[in-house]
Specification:
The chain is an alpha/beta fold. It has 2 domains: 224 residues, Medium-chain alcohol dehydrogenases, catalytic domain (Quinone Oxidoreductase, Chain A, domain 1, Alpha-Beta Complex), CATH 3.90.180.10; 126 residues, NAD(P)-binding Rossmann-like Domain (Rossmann fold), CATH 3.40.50.720. 24% of the residues lie in helices and 26% in strands. The protein has 11 helices and 17 strands. Helix 4 crosses helix 5 and helix 4 packs across helix 10. The longest helix is centred in the middle third of the chain and has 12 residues. It binds zinc ion (2 copies). The site of one zinc ion has 10 residues, from helix 3.
Length: 372
C-alpha cells in the first residue's frame, strides 16, 4: 500500500488505517532471509511509527547478514535489520505531542543509536557509548539488535529520527546516517584549517568523509584506493592515489613536501588499510578508524606512534551529527546524490545485497524501497 502525505491527518495517526501486518525482510539464519508478513509495530512513549521510504545498505548490514557478530547483532533470529533510512511519521506515541518535536506527516531520517539518556556517557553527549547498551526499552540500536527499517513500517525513539528539510529528496534522506558517520569520523581527530587529510578507501564512506574533511577546513584531501571506485573519487574532484600503481605512503609524502598528512581516516577496516592510515601521517598526526575491523587485531607501528606522538581515534557510528550533516547536505558541501547507484524493491533484497557486496556495475550506495 502507499500513503502520501496528503492522506495523513495532522495529529495522532494517519487518516488511512495502519495495517495490522506489514512486509518485512526477516533474517532467519546467517546468509538466509525471507520476505514475510509480520505484525506492524506500534509506537510506545516518546516513539514514532514511520512509513519507510528508503533504506541504504551499508557494510555493517552485510556483516550482520553474514552472521559475523553472533549473539550480538542480531541477538537471535528471526530478525529485521536496516538502519540507514528515511520515511514519513504516520503515528506518534504517548508524550510526543506534548513536546511538539514531531507530528504526523513529518519527513525524517533515521539513525541507529538511542542512548538511555541517564548514564555518564549519555549525559556527556557520547550516547553512542551508552553504558546501558542493550537494555531495552531504555536503550536501542535499531537495525543492530532492536528492530530495523527493512520493512514497510518502523518504530523509533524520537532520539533517533531527524526532520528533513524540503531541499533533501525523501529517498536521499536514507544517506543522512551514512553522512553523519563520515562527519563524526573527521570531528573525532579534528581538522585544523589548512590540514592535509588522507582518506583510506574510496567507497561511499570514504567519499563522504573526504567531503566532510573539506567542509571542516582541510586544504587538501587525498583518497587512496584502486579501481572503479577510485575513478569515481577522481570524477568527484578529489586528489587520488592508486595504491596498486604507486606506494601510497611515498606518494602522500611526495605531495606534502616530504612531511605526510596531518590527519588520516581509515574507512576500510582491513589490516592493511589500518596500517596505511598510520603510515601516511606526519609527526604529531592524528588518525581515525571508521571501518569496524573483522580481521582480528592489527599490528601498529608503535615506535612511530610513540616517538611521533600520533593520536589514535576510534569511531563508533555517530553522535550528535545528524542535524549537522543535514545542513551540510543542503549546503551542497556533503554530496550524497552521486553515491546512490542502484535502487531495488524490498522483494529484491537478495539482489540488492549482492549488488552492493560485489560492487556490481560499479555499485556504491544501494537503496531498498520497502513500500514499492
Ligand atoms: Zn550503516
Ligand atoms: Zn546511556
Amino acid at each position: 500500500m502507499t500513503i502520501t502525505t496528503s492522506t495523513l491527518a495532522t495529529n495522532g495517526r494517519a487518516s488511512s488505517p495502519i495495517p495490522s501486518s506489514m512486509r518485512a525482510l526477516v533474517l532467519t539464519a546467517p546468509h538466509e532471509h525471507e520476505i514475510r508478513d509480520v505484525p506492524t509495530p506500534r509506537p510506545g512513549p516518546m516513539e514514532v511509527l514511520c512509513l519507510v521510504e528508503a533504506v541504504a545498505i551499508c557494510g555493517t548490514d552485510l556483516h550482520i547478514y553474514e552472521g559475523r557478530f553472533p549473539g550480538r547483532w542480531p541477538r537471535s533470529y528471526p530478525y529485521i535489520p536496516g538502519h540507514e533510512w528515511s520515511g514519513t511519521v504516520v503515528e506518534i506515541g504517548p508524550g510526543v505531542a506534548d513536546i511538539g518535536m514531531f507530528a504526523v506527516g513529518d519527513r525524517v531520517a533515521g539513525t541507529s543509536h538511542a542512548g538511555c539518556g541517564y548514564c555518564r556517557m549519555c549525559t556527556t553527549g557520547r550516547y553512542n557509548l551508552c553504558e546501558n547498551y542493550g537494555k531495552e526499552p531504555i536503550h536501542h540500536q535499531y537495525g543492530h539488535y532492536s528492530q530495523g527499517a527493512d520493512a514497510q513500517y518502523v518504530v523509533h525513539s524520537i532520539k533517533s529520527v531527524f526532520k528533513l528539510p524540503d531541499e533533501i529528496d525523501l529517498p536521499l534522506g536514507a544517506m543522512v546516517d551514512t553522512a553523519s558517520i563520515a562527519l563524526h569520523s573527521v570531528k573525532r581527530p579534528g581538522i585544523n584549517a589548512g590540514d592535509v587529510a588522507v582518506v583510506v578507501g574510496p567507497g561511499p564512506m570514504g567519499m563522504l568523509t573526504a567531503d566532510c574533511a573539506l567542509a571542516l577546513g582541510a586544504a587538501h584531501v587525498i583518497i587512496t584506493g584502486s579501481g572503479e571506485r577510485l575513478q569515481k573519487a577522481l570524477d568527484l574532484g578529489f586528489d587520488v592515489i592508486d595504491y596498486k600503481a604507486e606506494d601510497p605512503v611515498a606518494a602522500v609524502k611526495a605531495r606534502t613536501g616530504g612531511k605526510g598528512a596531518n590527519v588520516a581516516i581509515d574507512t576500510g577496516g582491513t589490516l592493511s588499510s589500518i596500517r596505511q592510515a598510520v603510515d601516511v601521517l606526519r609527526k604529531g598526526g592524528r588518525v581515525a578508524f571508521t571501518g569496524v575491523p573483522t580481521e582480528g587485531d592489527s599490528a601498529l607501528p608503535m615506535q612511530k606512534i610513540v616517538l611521533e606522538e600520533i593520536d589514535l581515534f576510534g569511531v563508533r557510528a555517530n553522535r550528535n551529527t545528524m542535524e549537522e550533516a543535514i545542513a551540510l547536505i543542503v549546503a551542497g558541501r556533503i554530496r550524497v546524490k552521486p553515491l546512490v547507484t542502484h535502487t531495488f524493491k524490498l522483494e529484491q533484497y537478495g539482489t540488492a545485497l549482492h549488488t552492493f557486496a560485489d560492487r556490481v556495475d560499479g555499485a556504491l550506495k544501494v537503496l531498498v524501497y520497502p513500500n514499492e
